[in-house]
Amino acid sequence: MEGLGAVASAIAVVELTAKVGSLCLEYSSAVKSARSDIKRLRKHTDTLKTTAEGVRELLQGPYGARLETSQKLREALSNTCSQLGDVATKLEEKLHKGHRAKTMRRVGLRAFGWPFESKDVDKIIANLQRDQDSFSAALQIDQITEILDIHSKIDLAALPVASGAASDSHAEEHNARCHPDTRTKLLRQIREWASDPQAENIFWLNGMAGTGKSTISRTVATSFAKDGLLGASFFFKRGEGDRGNAGLVFPTIARQLVHKIPALVPSIREAIDADPDIPKRALRDQFEKLILHPLGCIQRTTAIVVIIDALDECDGDKDVKTIISLFAQASVIRSVRLRIFITSRPELPIRLGFKDVQGKYQGLALHQIPEQVVEQDISTFLAYELTRIKDEYNGQVPLGWPGENDIRTLAQMAVPLFIFAATVCRFVDDQGRSNPAKRLKKVLEYRTAARNSTLDKLDATYLPVLDQLTSGRTDQDKAEVLAEFRSIVGPIILLAQPLSVRSLGQLLDVECESVHALLNSLHSVLDIPSVDDAPVRLFHLSFRDFLVDPAKRTKNEFWIDEAEYHKTLTERCIQLMDQCLGQDICCLKVPGMLRSELDQQTINAHLPPEVQYACQYWVHHLKESKHNIEDDGPAHAFLTNHLLHWLEVLSLLGRLSDGVLLIRTLLHAAQLQPDTAPNFVDFLNDAEKFIRSHGAIMERAPLQIYGSALVFSPTLSRVRKQQWKKRLSFIKSVAGINDHWGTLQQTLEGHSRSVTAVAFSADGKTLASGSYDKTIRLWDAVTGTLQQTLEGHSHWVTAVAFSADGKTLASGSGDKTIRLWDAVTGTLQQTLEGHSGSVTAVAFSADGKTLASGSYDKTIRLWDAVTGTLQQTLEGHSDLVTAVAFSADGKTLASGSDDKTIRLWDAVTGTLQQTLEGHSGSVTAVAFSADGKTLASGSYDKTIRLWDALTGTLQQTLEGHSHWVTAVAFSADGKTLASGSDDKTIRLWDAVTGTLQQTLEGHSHWVTAVAFSADGKTLASGSGDMTIRLWDAVTGTLQQTLEGHSGSVTAVALSLDWNSGLDASKNRGLGGDILFFNGEWITRGGKNLLWLPPNYRATCTSVYNHTLVLGHASGQVTFFQIVSA
């Protein structure tokens, strides 16, 4: 029964810790002289009790059978029991020894002292901590053994990482750590914070550029790693590719945590199995499923420290605030003491982020450290480094060099910039140059210059290094050197991610030797590897700041014009892509090969780093160059020739979703300039539709860019017409494809049940959807990318609405509650309870202060949207309330009901103003026009009615739907009204005349919700088919169809000896292979050939020789002539 012994010991530890804690409480109320020791012992036993309870739960959990047999665990628990038993016995003996109850009552407890001296308490706590660490370590070992079982292995490749972001990465290997005699007080403070169970879980260290934040981070990381406390680290670095990508922070941290704490494997594996795309999900989803939940499932007595360095260099201000908010939530974890150490410059987005979590972090600004302390630390560092340099030069410098006066002067020049001291030391130590004494003298000369000019600290830091390039040269030589410096260093400091000397040479079309020749003099400011394939990096971002500062344009001869060199980089990127890109660049051969089947080595072999760089960042450089975009200019010519090739590379790199954003960036830049380049703009608009329409398959299967995407684009599309010759070779001709882009822009898939509600944020950038699957999803309305999934409702979600400022999202549910969410972070802010039936509708007032909700309980409730307080309950409807809407001025609230009426209420007093009657069926939807003059209502009677919102007079009845009307919405200008119906269509009406403008078809089930974006250009619809569709609400171009069918195509009859359907036994004639249709793909020879978009999937098929015919549910027929490739 050894196993029972382990469980029994754990239970005994729990009971004994409770007993010792109780005894300490008795003493603390009576013994004043030892309260500090009593408090310490009680605090430790409380912590030990929590850990022991966790051990007990683990022993009784799924891994318990194996853990119970651990000899080390049993010994550790036994020792802890023994130690606690001795302490409890001594406390009890001292409390009762030699006294009868009568005497105790007479003299009182204060007559007795605490039985331990402070040193005894220290020893007891140390022994208990040792035992606690022992059984924690035993658990760790045994869990590792269990986890390494084949059934608990995890594929770490599923967790992408930001290369070089970890503190122990090669990229950080040679970067400085604090000298042992510097920053001692600060480092001690950080260590005390990490070990204090009562401390806040975040420590924010902030300071201006060059004050040594990253050096402190690396030192802290090294120290905690040595003690086994470092869980993970992420060192942001702008211009280093993924090291600025917020989307990789949590996967990178999770991957490191798995290595350090194998007990996390089951939870993280479960998260990946449940959602293989979790690394692409919203930051909140990543954090909760890869960090928060896994850590909450383990027990650990020692702290786990996560280090986040240079958070200000993270791309995206919103992401910065989200990361801070999420880390603040880690305080809810009780089983693990998670500590997050963050450094950054005190920039506005970060200050705002920490303001939102006030009281949940410990902060320290480096500028608050007394200047004399900083100066002393810099002096210590300088003395150590200069002495080392002196020793390495074997007497080539004077005996007394550098001398205390020079060190003091340098330290005074440096304060508070440690980067000054580090740069000076690298400059003085530059092998092969003049001896150190002369180079130090050169630096000290800038002390005198600074006194007599506006020379600042960055000048004094970097000019000694750069001036050596031009010193003693003729004016002509000097001009040549400066030009060469700018042509090479300019691009280096402006690159979006660092490149190696070899790649830099290829990108700039410069010989590697020329690059080396210049860089050899810049080892003090650039990290230049000894091999040509490793990236050249800036030691510090302040070097870039120094070179591009507009204020230094006329003062600094090394000044670099950012716009000019961004233009140079744009030109070189385009030239390089023009030379290197081509169809099937990785030689995949198979049209349907998925990107997930490719290994990175294959991609890298065909796409060298400089080409990858050019494809990802040429638009960035073009934008920053502020150069005019012209018709038939370099950008236009490049995309005309290489759009598909470029998209193929983005797909191979897993960056296809960036394509839409990059095209939009070009469009925005072109539209802002005086000459809008109309031809190029038209091409870009078409390219955006091409990517948005086919992005899903292009991202999955790169070569389908030349197959499905090209084939199923409209025949009059500019992209299709210009690129048609690039189609996959087996496609000879196609007929039956629409001539124009339809109104459908994009189909968003992800919900597992019917979509019930959709809403745009006020800026049009985010789309929210609610579903029967109990979730709310937030989508990027531009790219269609899923940003977040909000979970919490215990029943279907019936309604969603954004506040006017876009910061808050409200959701209503069948669980009778309304939930308010932070629309940026996805954090649940409040749950509003009060309705006695399902909530059916929610709406914010225009000022965002009031939230209205309708319910099955026949009432409308008005809530304070800030505090969540119920303000009023409006009663009057005789059946369930189905819809609510505020007028734009917030004074009137409309409600629709199954009682067939619309009621108008005074939104301030709650007084019923009017009851509008006329519908012969349940009212399902209500909406005000922007000017508040017109109210629209939809009904089960298949009509939409337009009412004068002031008088209640019926203005028009719009008829056309063949089934219930389920949703209505006005465009922002009030000119267009959209309606959704059970007949699977959306109809757009002229809201003034009532004329039907167009009918949007595409959903395969009832339409449940419609919403316009703020600019009126996009219409979103939700449906029972589990999709959200985005439509072009402006052009409304109808799709062409082959006329003749009045319903679904159920058969195709052809003469000769056509075969009906794709019969595996008969359908030959295409190179001898058999042609199949498996629902999504046309396949041949067992390999995917051509992907069919949802609206082109066949209800019947036929093939003869080289011709394939597909009949579609829309009544359309498509013909393909396919030949052997």
TrEMBL record:
Keyword list, A-Z: Repeat, WD repeat
InterPro entries xrefs: NACHT_NTPase (IPR007111), NPHP3-like_N (IPR056884), P-loop_NTPase (IPR027417), Quinoprotein_ADH-like_sf (IPR011047), WD40/YVTN_repeat-like_dom_sf (IPR015943), WD40_PAC1 (IPR020472), WD40_rpt (IPR001680)
Start-end of each WD repeat: 748-789, 790-831, 832-873, 874-915, 916-957, 958-999, 1000-1041
PANTHER family, alphabetized: TRANSCRIPTION INITIATION FACTOR TFIID, TRANSCRIPTION INITIATION FACTOR TFIID SUBUNIT 5
This protein's name: NACHT domain-containing protein
Origin species: Chaetomium globosum (strain ATCC 6205 / CBS 148.51 / DSM 1962 / NBRC 6347 / NRRL 1970) (Soil fungus)
A matching Pfam family: NPHP3_N
Domain (NACHT): residue spans on this chain: 201-346
